[in-house]
Design a protein that fits this description.
17% of the residues lie in helices and 19% in strands. The protein has 5 helices and 10 strands, in the order E-E-E-E-H-E-E-E-H-E-E-H-E-H-H. It folds into 2 domains: 139 residues, Outer membrane lipoprotein wza fold like, CATH 3.10.560.10; 65 residues, wza like fold (2-Layer Sandwich), CATH 3.30.1950.
Length: 242
Amino acid sequence: MSMGRRVVVGLVILGIAACGTPFRDHTRGPIKGTLQADTLASGQPSPPPYRIQRGDALAIRFYRNPELNIDLVVRPDGMISLPLINDVSAADSTPQELGRHLEGLYKRELAVPDVAVIVTKFAGQKIFIGGEVTTPGEQELPSGLTMYGAITRAGGFKNSARVNQVILIRKGPDGKLGGKSFDLSEVHGGTHPELDVALEPYDIVVVPRSAVGNVNTFMELYITRNLPAGGIWLNVLAAGGF
């Protein structure tokens, strides 16, 4: 297998490495809602591979022809421009698929094309923080961001926040939304920071004011009333699953 087959996705993928990790339940009471991602367990299929998006930054590397190496950004039309060949469609392909496609195109120009596609910056990877925090709204998702870290970036809990029942809403591998509550009081107090939870792209974290009896009902009401209705959140709103 050529090195081009071993195309690397730069694991600056802003949290995507956590997609297959089941959540641990750190709540002290019963969970009324279920998180679809919880169904992932050892031996079950992994989440689908990352697909390149418009606005992603790519590093194209030619191992045998480094003079052709290029760093570029996927254009709004989904295309990229490369030396010696015409424009190539990159959006919606996995890095592996794009690498194989480029190898095929460059066979007409290079004796042994070994091409690697590395995603160096990911466009549109966001989360949403709402409820009883100082500054609710969208946030960029850097690698390793946790629930409590995102709340801190949003200005922290308000005095009215229900710290022991923070709701995490996530789209599962089946495309449906699921919700689960987490007790972050010991994370907030600094006694057990290891109980924090890593976030994934398009997660929604909601800090309620009062006790939530049914997470699924709360999730449905919150998303339909509070989530921004445009941009990337259209996909979240379309997920359903209530």
